[in-house]
Structure formats: structure tokens, C-alpha cells
Amino acid sequence: MRIDVVSIFPEYLAPLRLSLLGRAQEDGLLSLAVHDLRDFTFDRHRTVDDTPYGGGAGMVMKPEPWALALERVLEEQLAHDGAGLGPAPRRPVLVVPSPAGEVFTQAMAYELAEQPTLAFACGRYEGIDERVLEWAGEHFDVRPVSLGDYVLNGGEVAVMAMVEAVGRLLPGVVGNPESLVEESHADGLLEYPVYTKPASWRGHDVPDVLLSGNHGKIASWRLEQQLRRTAARRPELLDGADASSYGKSERAV
Ligand code: SAM
Fold this sequence. Notes:
Layout: E1 2-7, H1 19-26, E2 31-36, E3 49-50, E4 60-61, H2 63-81, E5 93-103, H3 106-113, E6 117-121, H4 130-136, E7 141-146, H5 156-167, H6 178-181, E8 200-201, E9 204-205, H7 215-233
Parallel strand pairs: 1-2, 1-6, 5-6, 5-7
Antiparallel strand pairs: 3-4, 8-9
Helix pairs in contact: 2-4, 3-5
Bound molecules: S-adenosylmethionine.
S-adenosylmethionine binds next to strand 5.
Binding site for S-adenosyl-L-methionine: 123, 147-152
EC number: 2.1.1.228
Family: Belongs to the RNA methyltransferase TrmD family.
């Protein structure tokens, strides 16, 4: 997969070069390009913002640097796809982080992980001039996405979270694919509690069933724990969920 991120703080994205995603890039499983929006300005101050029409607090990101930056991303992504070869070019996905977007979920992470390329546009200030999204819709499949119901200073932290959630689903990125199947949200429930050695620690013991060696009993206990934990912490996840999928992920990894 190729991922392009446009930001006025490209260095913010540096942690995406570390750990599992860093190794994925070294191994050629993922290619990450970070573009500085200010490289697409032409004035001495490299201006990317201006006052809002209609008045109000804060500044709004100007449209033209975004159009130029996204045109560059489009060109590079089409080249990556091998433009001109094979079927008609698809419209690449452009994720625009926004507290006013659709909330990011594990299901969306799986959906985005199917894409050959992804682009992310990190807003700052009061956000990006709305016409950029209208214009971008002519070239991209534009997806405004929220990390959750709170407001961050910029899109970079949201992009880091989304790229990490998507990147770890790419084949070969996580060493043991089984660990993706047994995680929270894989089957609509939160994960069961996990323990390691020693069996007794500061007066707290590992549940006996986990020491029993009985795999059937362990699986039943884990499912029961998943249901209890989900009911206690995130009861809304149980509403309308397909109970037949509990305890097993539908996704073959
Ligand atoms: N005025 C905007 C509003 O109320 O919707 C908030 C702007 S926020 C200060 C600046 C940028 O941070 C946004 O353009 C977006 O890129 C990012 N951002 C803030 N909160 C976010 C969230 N919950 N999810 C994703 N991105 C977020």
C-alpha cells in the first residue's frame, strides 16, 4: 500500500517510521510519503491560512495550496498504480480528518486496508476551506473521518492513529496474524483479559481455568469475559450485534 499525508507539520508524522510500521516500510509492504503543504505556496511567508468569510474566530486553510498538493499526490499515486495499464483508473480514497466526520472504527480500518493507496489531508486552525472537499470529490473518493467526539488541534494525531490501525492489518505487518483475529472489535466484542507469568503476583492470581490446559473451557471462559466486559464498558456494542459471530472473527486473516 502507498500512503500520502499532507500536513503543515510533516515532522509530526515521524513516529510512523518506528516499530512495526517502520519495519513494514523497510520490507516494502508499505510506502509512506509525507508532503509539506507549505511547499505548495508561493509567497514569502508560505501562507496557508486566511480569515473566515462571514467572520468568526480563528483562521481557515486556503484552498489553492491544498489543490496543488493533492494534485501532486494524485499524480504520484496514479504512477504508483501503473497509470494507463490494466482497468480504468479508480478514484483513490482521500481521508480528511475532521471532528465533523464519520467516526473511525475497526470496520473502517479493514475497509481502508483493502485500498492500494490512501491519502490524508491534515487540517489545522478552523479547518480547510469547504470547496477543497468539493473539488477533491472530482478526483478522489473523499471521506471526512473523525477519531472521536472531541476536538484536536490538527489532523496529524488522527492520521497517526488511522495509519497505524490500517497499517497493522496489511498482510505481513503483524508477525502472528492470529493476534488480529482475537483482538477487541474483531468479532464485535471487547477482548477478554490477558495474563502472563507469574501465576501469582502481589496477592493477585491468574484465573484457574487458564492453568487447566482445557482448551474448550478456556475458550468458553474467554467468551464469557468478552460478553461481561463489553456489557459493562461498551453496552451499545451489544445492541443489534450478530451474536452468532461471537468468539470467532469472520475475517480470515
Ligand atoms: N472548527 C473545527 C470544527 O469545529 O469542526 C475544528 C478544527 S480543529 C481545531 C483543526 C483540525 O484538527 C481539523 O481540521 C481536523 O483536521 C483535526 N481534528 C480535530 N479534531 C478531530 C477529530 N476528532 N478527529 C479527526 N480530526 C480532528
